[in-house]
Specification:
Blueprint: H1 14-17, E1 24-29, H2 37-50, E2 55-60, H3 62-65, H4 72-89, E3 97-100, H5 106-117, H6 120-124, H7 127-133, H8 142-156, E4 162-164, H9 170-186, E5 197-199, H10 234-243, H11 255-259, H12 262-275, H13 279-286, H14 291-317, H15 320-349
Length: about 350
């Protein structure tokens, strides 16, 4: 998909515009660990760019978070932090619905129905379950295995037409489509659930570790120097970029050269993503220069573009009453959208509502 900040028409919306309708987006972020640059560039910034083009619901998916154990106090705090990050990045709480998943019971209610529609074989094929459960798969929670059913419920509870996803979630969205089609067929309800389309953004979807250019930037990496947290101040950003792993050669001369050098390629990609430039243009601008000069330029750019988001996020976290009011209002609006759809699902399935 082209950059959503572009003035070019969005090709995904033609079918809806023709009927004087907007598409509807659902997307969520788990409240686990510190939000970092990869979360911002790969997801949250794109949310901001999509608002106005679609009817949007942005969710803190706290029920997904507990598929692995979470400290309850930390989960509460991190839920507020994700909501604060949404607002700090520029999401408008009046024109979008911002809420936490557990505040809308319909997510879990629809997920149970989808557990009965989906097949065990589908779940066993999910790559992310295999990765997260590791070798001790028998000890993984049932929730981790059934995670994709809840993700499908998140999306289809609002009949979302589009979901912005990274490559690591693409398989789950394909399963959502399978569940929607099977439900529609099983209950002779053609077109009841939409076949949701992915919105996959390009250059910024994979931001790699500052300590290892072959690994994705992660909240769970034990080294804080592997990532730029959204709440890092200018000094922390500067220090982390200065210490970012590089190689002894000058900056690559071409994109092909960069791709052979993971750490250089990662830093060039980060610069391009933050600056909204093509990576090829960034490679040309810094070709043959010393890494120190490039890192200075990257530091200045990151502090200017990312620093204000982190500052506003920290300010909002110190005002939990306001953040909670946004989530409460969002949950009320989300419930109002979800209830008639869930009621119709119950009628289709044959649940008696005396």
């Amino acid at each position: 998909m082209p950059d959503a900040s572009s003035a070019a028409p969005n090709p995904h919306l033609a079918a809806y515009t023709a009927r004087s309708l907007k598409g509807r987006i659902f997307s969520g972020v788990q409240p686990t660990g510190n939000l970092h640059l990869g979360n911002y560039l790969g997801a949250i910034r794109n949310f901001v760019r999509l608002q106005g083009q679609y009817d949007c619901l942005f969710c803190v998916v706290d029920q997904h978070a507990i598929t692995v154990w979470q400290d309850p106090k930390e989960l509460t705090q991190q839920t507020r932090e994700i909501a604060a990050a949404f607002l700090a990045a520029g999401l408008d709480a009046r024109n979008n619905i911002i809420f936490n998943q557990s505040s809308v019971p319909g997510h879990a209610q629809l997920a149970w129905i989808f557990n009965c529609v989906a097949r065990i074989g589908w779940m066993n094929r999910m790559t992310q379950f295999k990765e997260k459960s590791g070798k001790d798969r028998e000890n993984a929670s049932l929730g981790l295995l059934a995670y994709p059913s809840l993700m499908a419920a998140d999306i289809l509870l609002y009949k979302a037409t589009h979901v912005p996803v990274g490559e690591d979630q693409k398989q789950h969205l394909e399963l959502t489509r399978d569940i929607a089609m099977k439900f529609n067929n099983d209950f002779n309800a053609p077109d009841f659930f939409p076949i949701t389309e992915p919105l996959i953004f390009g250059a910024a979807t994979r931001v790699m570790s500052l300590r290892d250019g072959t690994k994705k930037m992660s909240k769970s990496d034990p080294s804080d120097y592997s990532r730029i947290n959204l709440t890092d101040d200018a000094d922390a950003i500067t220090q982390k970029i200065r210490k970012a792993k590089t190689d002894p050669l000058p900056m690559p001369e071409t994109e092909a050269d960069a791709e052979k050098r993971p750490e250089a390629d990662n830093l060039l990609g980060i610069y391009a993503a933050i600056a909204d430039q093509e990576k090829a243009d960034v490679v040309r601008a810094f070709a043959g220069q010393q890494f120190s000069a490039f890192k200075n330029a990257l530091t200045d750019l990151a502090v200017a573009r990312i620093g204000p988001v982190g500052s506003e996020m920290q300010r909002l976290v110190k005002d939990p009453g306001y953040v909670d009011s946004v989530l409460r209002d969002g949950a009320e609006r989300a419930n109002a959208l979800a209830k008639p759809i869930l009621d119709e699902v119950y009628r289709i399935v044959g649940f008696l509502r005396p």
